[in-house]
Amino acid sequence: VDFVFRRIRERPRRGESWEAHARDRRKAVFREVSLEFGGAPVLTGHSADDQAETRLWRLFTGAFETLGRGILPSHGVEVRPLLGIRREALREFLREERETWREDSSNQNARFLRTRLRRDLMPVIESLFPGAVEAINSVDRPERRGSRESHDSTS
């Protein structure tokens, strides 16, 4: 698997949020890289923790129904094969392989709500509810929905 790193230096337009700008530029770069590699998919490192954070962020901001219930396993040229794996398990795997964990520096910037959710809220949730990430990510998955509908139809 080829690793491609691109640094985006342009700033958002006046009134445009940093998050929206970064997302739009990232997706444009993914399309460009995919074309450079003959239409190959672009694999991202989103983890189960990212999925849980996204689901909670969307729930708490009222965007759960309009934006969807989480990160899709694939969308356009993006494929996210690690959504079912916890961040710490990925870090441990990389340590064993003597590889370096790479993280976007914006993930440490507290001006972003997502960073505060990850840094401040998720540890509290997980200390109160061990297994919370797995539980959050299991809510309303299609395979669970099917079993719930089967149960509801018999009651």
Verbal overview:
The protein is mainly α and 155 residues long. 53% of the residues lie in helices and 4% in strands. It has seven helices and three strands, in the order αβααββαααα. Helix 2 (48-60) packs across helix 6. The longest helix is centred in the first third of the chain and has 19 residues, at 18-36. The chain is globular and about 45 Å long. The N and C termini lie far apart (50 Å). Residues 142-155 have low confidence and may be disordered.
- How are the strands of the biggest sheet laid out side by side? 1-3-2
Task: Indicate the mean pLDDT.
Answer: 86
The rough form would be described as: globular
Give the % helix.
Answer: 40-55%
Poorly predicted residue ranges: 142-155
Q: How many strand units?
A: 3
Strand content: under 5%
User: What letter string, H or E per element, gives the SSE order?
Assistant: HEHHEEHHHH
End-to-end gap:
50 Å
For the biggest sheet, the summary is: 3 strands, mixed
Count of helical stretches: 7
Structural class computed from helices and strand pairing: mainly alpha
